Amino acid sequence: MASAREARERLRALLTRTRRRTPAPTGSPTGALAPAPHPCARATGLVAVVLLGAWLGLLIVGSVRTPVGPMDTSMTLRPSLSGGTKINVSPLGALELDSHTAPIRLDVDVDRLDPVRSQALVEHPERISGLQDEITQDVTAGTRDLALRSCVAVVAGATALGLAVYRSPRRALTAGGLALALLAASGTSAYATWNPKSVLEPKFSGLLSSAPSVVGNARSIVTEFDVYQKELARLVTNVTKLYDATSTLPVYQPDPATMRVLHVSDIHLNPAAWHIIGSLVEQYDIDVIIDSGDTMDHGTAAENTFLDPIPDLGAPYVWVRGNHDSPATQRYLQGLKNVHVLDEGRAVTVAGLRVAGTGDPQFTPDRSVVAQGDPAERMAGIRLASALHDQRRAGTPVDIAVAHNPVAARETDGAVPLALAGHVHHRETELLPLGTRLKIEGSTGGGGLRAVQNDEPEKVRASVLYLDRTTRTLQAWDEITLGGLGLTTAEVSRHLATEPAPDSPPPTPRPSPAP
């Protein structure tokens, strides 16, 4: 009995070992055992199947076409290490938004503008007021459809690939379930890290990086002006920080003792200018702001509240009247804190700097007023020069003279080292025959809101002047230029006072824009 039992046990053991054997390849020893897959290898293989299947599913069927306002778009989810949203505007380029952090990226392809919907907006501009809500609804509906379609796509893709690889329905369904869980986790991560402000800070590529922004036209700037002015101010801040960090001009480096004067002009009732000026004051540590006039458009009392942000700009504000500024404007500014109004050669000492100026003798808010022309400007300049000579004889020489019109400012040649003006809406620097340097600033308001009527919007211009604190002589200046309404260009260039003045013909004064 014992022998029979032992024989059965040996047979059972032999059969067990035989089942574990696989046919040996040609040339291999008979009966070689196939090594069982390592658990890590099995898991890695499953992950690869899930990721590849999900990606294939999204690539093949994970896209939806949806209208967004007047545009026809295609929305697609793509695997990504950094997440975000990419809006392709073929053939101009793309905008990238840091909208979320997740292993998926949302691609939006703008296919075309629908002619029917676009024409409807042109014929019925009142519909633009509801366009924001319409676009929000369109994007919400498109995103919902995309999420549903993407779920189907990743499950179908991972399941199909799992079935092809494993030939096991159970493992294929496991791959599909893991793909769905991965997509759900990615969606949760995107929702948790969603940044709605990313639409205000797009990164442009292709032709869009140097072309006018597609963020909006003149009408959208008016309707969303609060957003525009804040973001334009932020653009100034970023540009000036970049300039400080990457300046390669060792020939002149302002030290902490250097006086910094911000010259602005011709704001023309553009509220974005206050945000720009505030950013420049903070970034450049400005000591004094000098405004050479035309802060208003028509000089009416109703416009006066536009001036209320001036006391909070962070630096003393020196102002002269322009031809679009009325006596009522001047009286209102005289009542504001931290504002110094100059007229008829009056001089003040602000932050250690002696400044004198005169207001424009003409008030021409629109074309219904006949201008007196250059003779009136020259007489105002002669009176200013006389006041400057009086200040010098009294032992209180003036460092900077300010007038709105360059014709008046030229009359101060020889009476002051530096004269500032505006009015002509473009920037010029001229060394006058008797040694006075005349600096004419462009429009810090980009010509005002009426500039959108032009074919090409005016650029926003301002300058930072660096003066020696002891001698109060001009050492260098930075010219800051921003794209006008609807543009996104920005540049900063430095010039030395020791350089010869640019060869340019005398400026031909032109009236500020009027309706």
From TrEMBL:
Residues 14-36, 492-515 are annotated as: Disordered. The chain crosses the membrane at residues 43-64, 146-166, 173-194. Residues 502-515 have a biased composition (Pro residues). Residues 23-36 have a biased composition (Low complexity). It holds the Pfam family Metallophos. The keyword Transmembrane helix applies. SUPFAM superfamilies: Metallo-dependent phosphatases. Gene3D superfamilies: 3.60.21.10. Coiled coil: none annotated. InterPro entries: Calcineurin-like_PHP (IPR004843), Metallo-depent_PP-like (IPR029052), Metallophosphoesterase_sf (IPR051158). The keyword Transport does not apply. Keywords: Hydrolase, Membrane, Metal-binding, Transmembrane, Transmembrane helix. Residues 259-426 form the Calcineurin-like phosphoesterase domain. This is Metallophosphoesterase. It comes from Streptomyces formicae.
